[in-house]
């Protein structure tokens, strides 16, 4: 099973590299794009223009990627960085590869350039969190654990477990291996009461269920974090049910993940916010408004 997954990844990667050799284009909709195969275009979330705008055979068409808002909220279009006349925002706001970014007429947002994972395992998770200065435990086998690869990282969903009342991370086995009703992994990351992060899976995890927008918050596109908690009722003010050391580590870790993958704070949601229908989930039982304010 895993040998097959790796084979598929190995085939997809060179194709996206090859795609560049046909150059850039402007589609009939006026948007800048790239000449790539219709198959690569649709699999990375773009739209192919069938007009004869590209070299190569009929399967090579001008692929464009729609509209976007940059991290300052300015409207733009998703296009190759090389065709952007204004500034490209490196945050993960567009479909396609790393070179497809949100292009606006305004000035470029400052900050580090995050990576933009596409159809891959998130094998950088442990290093990203260690870099944030939090305690990290790498759970054996995490780099190959998952329900397939992640399509992208566009959102982060905060959860809490409803596990045992004592111990640092008593839910580890359930989050890693699943329960009688859901197969593991149930989240990529766990957070213990001591503030220690458990790196459980690098691939897709079954944490989100139906969401407001699965292209951002669904299991294919959002990292799930299950923080140990006993499932006390949701509160909209403060974080009274949480040990301070755990809460502060939650903030630190999520900040580091945002920075590494270019996820804007507006796309860090609690499961209770992302889940549909509304009211389906109550986690996490702290104020997400306060949490996002601390993310900056
Ligand atoms: Zn949840």
From TrEMBL:
It comes from Adineta steineri. GO terms for biological process: cell wall organization; peptidoglycan catabolic process; peptidoglycan turnover. It holds the Pfam family Amidase_2. The lineage of its organism: Eukaryota, Metazoa, Spiralia, Gnathifera, Rotifera. Residues 141-285 form the N-acetylmuramoyl-L-alanine amidase domain. This is N-acetylmuramoyl-L-alanine amidase. It catalyses: Hydrolyzes the link between N-acetylmuramoyl residues and L-amino acid residues in certain cell-wall glycopeptides. The keyword Oxidoreductase does not apply. Its EC number is 3.5.1.28. Residues 1-19 form the signal peptide. GO terms for molecular function: N-acetylmuramoyl-L-alanine amidase activity. The keyword Cell wall biogenesis/degradation applies. Keywords: Cell wall biogenesis/degradation, Hydrolase, Signal.
């Amino acid at each position: 099973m895993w040998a097959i997954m790796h084979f598929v990844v190995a085939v997809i990667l060179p194709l996206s590299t090859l795609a560049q050799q046909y150059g850039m284009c402007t589609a009939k909709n006026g948007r800048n794009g790239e000449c790539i195969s219709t198959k690569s275009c649709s699999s990375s979330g773009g739209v192919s223009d069938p007009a004869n705008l590209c070299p190569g055979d009929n399967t090579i068409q001008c692929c464009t990627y729609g509209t976007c808002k940059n991290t300052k909220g300015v409207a733009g279009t998703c296009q190759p960085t090389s065709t952007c006349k204004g500034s490209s925002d490196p945050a993960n706001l567009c479909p396609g590869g790393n070179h497809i970014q949100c292009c606006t007429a305004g000035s470029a947002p400052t900050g580090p350039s995050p990576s933009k994972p596409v159809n891959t395992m998130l094998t950088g998770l442990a290093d990203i969190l260690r870099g944030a200065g939090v305690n990290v435990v790498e759970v054996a086998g995490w780099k190959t654990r998952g329900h397939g690869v992640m399509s992208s990282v566009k959102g982060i969903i905060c959860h809490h477990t409803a596990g045992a009342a004592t111990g640092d991370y008593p839910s580890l086995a359930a989050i890693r291996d699943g329960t009688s009703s859901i197969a593991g992994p149930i989240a990529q990351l766990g957070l213990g009461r001591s503030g220690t992060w458990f790196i459980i899976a690098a691939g897709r995890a079954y944490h989100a269920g139906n969401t407001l927008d699965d292209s951002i918050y669904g299991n294919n596109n959002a990292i799930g974090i299950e923080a140990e908690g006993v499932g006390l009722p949701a509160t909209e003010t403060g974080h009274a049910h949480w040990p301070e050391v755990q809460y502060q580590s939650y903030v630190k870790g999520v900040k580091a993940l945002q920075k590494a993958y270019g996820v804007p704070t507006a796309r860090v949601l609690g499961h209770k916010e992302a889940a549909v229908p509304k009211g389906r989930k109550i986690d996490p039982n702290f104020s997400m408004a306060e949490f996002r304010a601390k993310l900056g």
